[in-house]
User: Fold this.
Amino acid sequence: MVVERLSKRFGERVAFDDVSFEVGVGEVFGFLGPNGAGKTTTVRTLGTLIAPSSGAAKVAGIPLSPRNGPAIRSRISIMPESPGLYLRLSVRENLECFAGLYELDDIRGRINRALASVNLTDRAADLCGSLSKGLRQRVALARALLNDPAVLFLDEPTSGLDPVATREVHELIMSLRASGVTIFLTTHRLEEAERLCDRVAILNTTLRLVGRPDELRAQLFRRSLDVRLRAPLADPGAVFGAVSEVEGWEQAPSGYTLAVSDPDLAVPALARALVDADADILSLAESHHSLEDVYLELVDEDVEATRR
Ligand SMILES: Nc1ncnc2c1ncn2[C@@H]1O[C@H](COP(=O)(O)OP(=O)(O)O)[C@@H](O)[C@H]1O
Ligand SMILES: [Mg+2]
Assistant:
């Protein structure tokens, strides 16, 4: 999937603006952003439900255009934020109904495979209205799998689910990844993106950053070490200044935070210097920044302006 300078406006309101990124075949791509960031509108645009205001995209290898809508739709699936099932019909009847709408062949075989892949085979006769929210979400996922999509859009697949149901959906997404489907997953949950996604894009109307979760962390923050000692150093500047790997230091609530080029080189040198200075080391470790730190930095407009 290739997206180039895509924008969508509703009248005066800008839903997303000038968004460009690529998603590789078989990749799980996370689209992360707060409420109102434009995630759902992006999914609806790439899913050919609404037309972009400007820009271009290729979805499942096909250029996005009104004429290519049917061809794109046959190769993708969208699982929307709310499952939208017929609650008075059974699981199987729901799937039959949608398979009929999509004009699919081999409906019976497709339904059985879809049910099996979300572990719902033995619930096929249950009314959707009698299912928990988590199970309904799995039915919605089964529906999205009916046409064997090359690209699957999952819009906040775990929103409103309890931790157990969330975990089940995560496991299903992992097994789909193993089957080679390209997955475009929107979420406002950071740990979800970090856990499931090969790469993550952070959106807040405009795209703020794209990369692997670990790259985003490294890109945004200089590497640093947290040093905790039993007692403060008499002359920290002299101790830290003598270690060439240390690029800067500052006092922290429980010790010192040091900017370093390479923690693997800095830690041993620093330990020697501290011991030579008669310091009792309590701990010496690389500071950990979570994706959440990155995210909060990026969605905060004021901070964003001062960053790269
Ligand atoms: N059909 C629409 N008409 C007008 N504004 C819309 C429409 N759909 C979405 N928006 C606006 O676009 C912005 C992005 O919404 P949305 O894509 O739903 O964000 P998200 O899914 O990230 O929470 C919001 O300001 C929303 O109010
Ligand atoms: Mg949304």
Notes: The chain has two domains: 2-211, 222-286. The chain has twelve helices and 14 strands. The first strand starts at residue 2 and ends at 10. The domain at 222-286 is CATH 3.30.70.100 (Alpha-Beta Plaits).
